[in-house]
Each structure stands twice: as structure tokens, then as C-alpha cells.
Amino acid sequence: MRFDLIQSLSLAGEAGIPNDDRAGARDTLGWVIDGATDLGPPGLVGSRGGAAWLADEASAALAHAADAPAGEMLAALAMRMAERFAEARAREPVGRWELPIAALLLARLAGDALECAWLGDCAGLLRRTTGEVVRLGRLPVERDRETELAKSLASHGLGTIKGRDDAVIETLRGTRERPGLVVLGVEGATDGAEYQRAACAPGDELLLMTDGFAALVDSYDAYDAAALMAAVARDGLAPLALQLRAIETGDAACTRFVRFKTSDDATALWLRIGG
Q1: Which Pfam families does this chain map to (predicted)?
Q2: pTM of the model
Q3: For tag attachment on the chain, is the N or C end more exposed, with fewer CB atoms within 10 Å?
């Protein structure tokens, strides 16, 4: 079996700020990467932000990685990012919070099954030809935690992170310092990585999403998993992206759906399994 690319879409959260998401697909591998928003100015890896740098490097590495079981591929990717960071680093980080990190979900075809591995909160949906929809990746526990944190800081103003230097940024930096973060980083570790194996067959369809796009299901309750896959099959990704942004611009103050940014980078990759 192989992956056939049907559509891909990636939107920056703000048109004036670079998109830190990446996605890609090759014959038997698909992936989405969500670079975590930088909490300080560029400089650690040169003039480019660390989130975009890490997402770019990881996506390029996966595009050329040797085929291997998903867990081995993830471990090799983590080591490669540590090596590339050692080469690219321009100075010592101000704190651990400045180290680039990202969420990642990769899906690999292996015989008659789909192997998934992930770090962080990217999400996937597998729609079988029977109509059954299987959730891939972590349930939105981390997004729930982020929502609660945003609520606790709402008095400082929500809707944007970049360019700020206040209690919101200091708190977010503190969360990056805590031990046990489950992310793709530059320290060579895959601690907390999770894995999943699901039966699949030609004709099944796969939707891989960063959390900015998965918000349609996980945060805004615009769809459940089955309804989202039905909408993708019926209309494609572009109308869903418009709906996503309409929900967010209609709540620009982030009061109905409490969140740090009015709109996050949002990426989706729609693949079909071919025989």
C-alpha cells in the first residue's frame, strides 16, 4: 500500500508572522509538525525563530529518512535534531524555555497496518471504507491544560503572544521549564512518546492535523470526528479553513473560547491509502 496525497493546507495564525507548522508525505509516510511559539526574539539559531527552524529541519529529515518502524524513526529524528542544533546554535540559550520544541505526529504504512508515533498534541483521524473513524494521536489533554492556564491569565489580555514581555510570557516560559514536557526538541530525547497501530486498507483516508486545525473538533465543537471526515470528503480542506477562521475572528477577544492567540497556525494533510 501507499499514500496518495489528496490535499494539504497550512495557514499562518497571523499573515504578518511566519508559520511554524510543517507537513509532508512520501510513499509510506506522512507527518505534521507544530513548532511551539517562540517566547523571545530570534537569535538562538540565527535570525530565524527557533520554532520555524526546528519544524523545517524535522520535516526535511523525515522527507529523506530511511524507512523504519515508527518508533525507530522518531528516535532517529530526535537525535538528528540534537546534532543539527549543535551545528546551528549561535549562542547559549537564555533559559531552557528558549530551546526550540515542537509537536509531531507521523503515520507510517507497514503491511496492512498504520503505525503512528507522536510527541505533543497533533492529531489524526483514520476513516475506513466501512465509515468507521479512528482517532490517532493524543486526546486534547494538553489543550485543556492550556485553556485553564489562559483563563488564569485572562486579566492580562489574550489574543496574541508574540512581541509581549509581561506576566503572560513569564508564565508561559515557566511552563517550558517544567520537567517531563512531551515534545520533539533538541536534546535527543523522545521521553513520553506514544505509539498506536491501526488496521487499514486501500481506500481508507487519513487526516493529519496540527492542533490549530484540530481545534474544529477539540476546542470549538464545530464537528465530531466522523462529521469532520465527512466534511473533508464532501468539500475538501479549504471551506473548513474558512470556517475555522470565521469562528476565531468572531471571538477575537478570546472570551467564548479562551485561548492565548486569536488564531493559531493551522495545518492539515489529507491522504488516501492506495493499493
Answers
A1: PP2C_2
A2: 0.95
A3: C
How far apart, in whole angstroms, are the C-alpha atoms of residue 26 and residue 146?
33
Q: How far is CA 104 from CA 54, 58, 180, 207, 222, in A?
A: 11, 9, 16, 14, 24
Instruction: Using alpha carbons only, give the angle 10, 14, 18 rounded to the nearest 5 degrees.
Output: 65
Round to the nearest angstrom and report the end-to-end CA distance of the chain: 5
Domain ranges of the chain: 2-13+20-274
Q: State the CB neighbour count (10 A cutoff) for residue 250.
A: 9
Q: What is the pLDDT along the chain (275 residues), one digit of tens a residue?
A: 999 999 999 999 998 889 999 999 999 999 999 999 999 999 999 999 999 999 999 999 999 999 999 999 999 999 999 999 999 999 999 999 999 999 999 999 999 999 999 999 999 999 999 999 999 998 877 777 888 888 988 888 888 887 777 899 999 999 999 888 899 999 999 999 999 999 999 999 999 999 999 999 999 999 999 999 999 999 999 999 999 999 999 999 999 999 999 999 999 999 999 98
CA–CA gap between residue 208 and residue 230 (Å, rounded) = 15
Options 1.10.10.60, 3.20.20.80, 3.60.40.10, 3.40.250.10; CATH for 2-13+20-274 is 3.60.40.10
Non-local CB neighbours of 179 within 8 Å, separated by 6+ positions: none
